Amino acid sequence: MSEMFLGNEMVKLNGIFAGENPFEIAKAWLRDAEKSEPNDPNAIALATVDADGLPNVRMVLLKSITDDGFWFYTNYESAKGQEIAATGKAAMVMHWKSLRRQIRVRGIVIREDGLEADEYYASRSLKSRLGAWASEQSRPLESRSALMAKVAKITTQKGANPKRPPFWGGFRIVPEEIEFWADGAYRLHDRFVWRREASENEWKITRLNP
């Protein structure tokens, strides 16, 4: 059980909501999901907007949660990569039916294409590494056979230990808002949102109506 300020009032956050660090709570929820979700407990719905302000959302695998953000990897030249580059912002949601919980995150996005990206790329299977080179993600494709032919060509060119493509790497969502939601009887759900104006600021917690 932990005590935190909720507005101007001290409240006790207990059970699955207890904690003084929202990243640690998120990690705990993800560990719970890994025990109960049948597939991809780390799947997130990632939302961005295009140049006209029209939203885009797609499923992406979250690589890790650290004390400075939520990490995922992709092709920088993909639709999501270009939209993130243009706005520097994104939102995501993790939803687990088995737990009847979800986490929503909104914030700025920082490109991470250094040592961490190299290490993660190297840890992937060879076929996945070669696939990252071959796929012009989000762009028109003539046929699947054309894609497979390109994979074969890349395999010949890059060999058994390809380096990380310069157009592929990581993004880290640095949240300004994290909401924890848990299902309640009669649709009277529990919702707590943690907000801060900048990463160096203290979190403020608010209980929301269901």
TrEMBL record:
Q: Quick one: which pathway?
A: Cofactor metabolism; pyridoxal 5'-phosphate salvage; pyridoxal 5'-phosphate from pyridoxamine 5'-phosphate: step 1/1; Cofactor metabolism; pyridoxal 5'-phosphate salvage; pyridoxal 5'-phosphate from pyridoxine 5'-phosphate: step 1/1
Domain (Pyridoxine 5'-phosphate oxidase dimerisation C-terminal): residue spans on this chain: 168-210
GO MF terms here are: FMN binding; pyridoxamine phosphate oxidase activity
Keywords from UniProt, A to Z, are: Flavoprotein, FMN, Oxidoreductase, Pyridoxine biosynthesis
- What transmembrane ranges does the database entry give? none
Pfam families xrefs: PNP_phzG_C, PNPOx_N
> Is Oxidoreductase tagged as a keyword?
yes
What cofactor does this one take? Answer: FMN
- Tell me which residues bind substrate: K63, Y120, R124, S128, R187, L188, H189
Top-tier EC class: oxidoreductase
Ranges for domain Pyridoxamine 5'-phosphate oxidase N-terminal come to: 33-157
Q: How does it assemble?
A: Homodimer.
Task: Give the function comment from the record.
Answer: Catalyzes the oxidation of either pyridoxine 5'-phosphate (PNP) or pyridoxamine 5'-phosphate (PMP) into pyridoxal 5'-phosphate (PLP).
Instruction: Quote the PANTHER family the UniProt record gives.
Output: PYRIDOXINE-5'-PHOSPHATE OXIDASE, PYRIDOXINE-5-PHOSPHATE OXIDASE
Name this protein carries in UniProt? Pyridoxine/pyridoxamine 5'-phosphate oxidase
In which organism is this protein found? Roseovarius albus
Gene assigned in the entry:
pdxH
